[in-house]
Specification:
alpha/beta, about 45% helix, binds pyridoxine-5'-phosphate, eight-stranded parallel beta barrel, about 15% strand, about 260 residues
């Protein structure tokens, strides 16, 4: 391959994976107590249209994805090469057992209490160091990559070295909700925390998610280097009402592939 083609090939390497959080499709399905939309069909379409992975967040009340969705989703993902299955949730004993049975590519640990409307804060690594250290080790023993949900705040990351997580997922709510006022200010703490992580924990990889959308995603990825994966649900599903699923995924991929 000549130099020009090597360079072209390099340019098409995906920088950030797009994992579609299909919880809201499951919410619509559950509303009628039947199987429409079918979560496997719709996830299959997301992957066919180019998404790099599927995320679900089975909550204790199973109002979105259910624990019984995990096995068929894992089977679906196993038909695709280089696409990943990510399961998020609070690491209750039940959650840990179910996730280990299914063995997704990645588990994302979130500290949300049982009735939470949505995830609304990251872990305090000091207060939860024993819980997280044990659970991260249990998942890693079972060959499941672990990511923990974190705030854009260095002071919540004390004891991160004990926890031995593979990745962290930056909680992007604050960024997304202040983006329209002042985007440079909105991203500031995220730059601070990622510079800290790069310096102190160069092996820990970075994911991001919550309230990312077609408007705020590009600036985030331009400013924060090396985001391995964004998981996007709510906005992406709202966009499908306007653009349809295939076109919506295409629009997000244009942003994650740059
Ligand atoms: N990451 C985590 C840990 C979440 O709990 C959620 C919502 O379930 C997301 C990302 C995706 O957030 P959104 O639905 O706002 O895109």
């Amino acid at each position: 391959m000549d130099d020009e083609n090597i360079w072209k090939n390099y340019l098409v390497i995906k920088m950030t994976a797009l994992s579609v959080n299909v919880n809201k499709f499951a919410l619509v399905r559950n509303a009628r107590g039947a199987d429409l939309p079918n979560l496997i069909d719709i996830s299959n379409k997301c992957l066919d249209y180019g998404a790099d992975g599927i995320t679900v967040h089975p909550r204790p009340d199973e109002r979105h994805a259910k624990f019984s969705d995990l096995e068929p989703l894992k089977n679906l993902l196993s038909k695709f090469e280089n696409k990943e299955f990510n399961v998020e949730g609070y690491p209750s004993d039940f959650f840990v057992k179910k996730v280990i049975e299914v063995k997704p590519d990645q588990v994302t640990l979130v500290p949300d209490p049982p009735g939470a409307l949505t995830s609304s804060f990251g872990w305090d690594c000091e207060n939860n160091k024993n819980l997280l250290t044990d659970i991260v080790s249990e998942f890693k023993k079972n060959d499941i990559r672990v990511s923990i949900f974190i705030n854009p705040s260095i002071k919540t990351l004390e004891n991160l070295e004990l926890i031995q997580t593979d990745r962290v997922e930056l909680y992007t709510f604050d960024y997304a909700h202040t983006f329209n006022e002042n985007k440079e200010k909105a991203i500031k703490d995220y730059i601070g925390v990622t510079n800290y992580l790069k310096k102190e924990f160069p092996k820990i990889e970075l994911n991001a998610g919550h309230d990312l959308n077609l408007e705020n995603l590009k600036f985030f990825l331009d400013k924060i280097n090396n985001v391995k994966e964004v998981s996007i649900g709510h906005a992406l599903i709202c966009d499908t009402f306007e653009f349809g699923l295939q076109e919506t995924i295409k629009k997000y991929l244009t942003l994650t592939n740059n």
